[in-house]
Amino acid sequence: MNKIMGVDYGDARTGIAISDLLCSIVGSTCVVPSRNVQKAIADIVKLCKDNMVGEIVVGLPRNMDGTEGPRAEVCREFADKLKEATGLPIVMWDERRTTVEAHNILSEHNYHGKKRKNTVDAVAASLILEGYLNYKKRN
User: Which of 17, 38, 73, 112 is deepest in the core (most CB within 10 A)?
Assistant: First the structure.
């Protein structure tokens, strides 16, 4: 059985969340630097191999009206590079409001400053993955 990875791609940092073996909950999270796209992809490829990942869900930033802007295109291009590098199936997942929700969660748990900055992307990735896992359970 393979795990599912959730990815919240960002210019500076990319949040990663990996499911448990049953693909029912988020099992672990981390952040990889992403200013160097090739290095970020290499880091993600290694995480996929080390964690027996069989599918990747990449957050797709949509506008509140459902349309896609320039950031969505950047994420699609990143997803294409990930697919090429990993050979794994990639699912694009609507990530509207995940970063806002991540900030709210961190505020509730008293995460501020640098601690928050280094955690928010991983929390956003876990929200993307949770949404996808819940979708798969229902369908």
Answer: 17
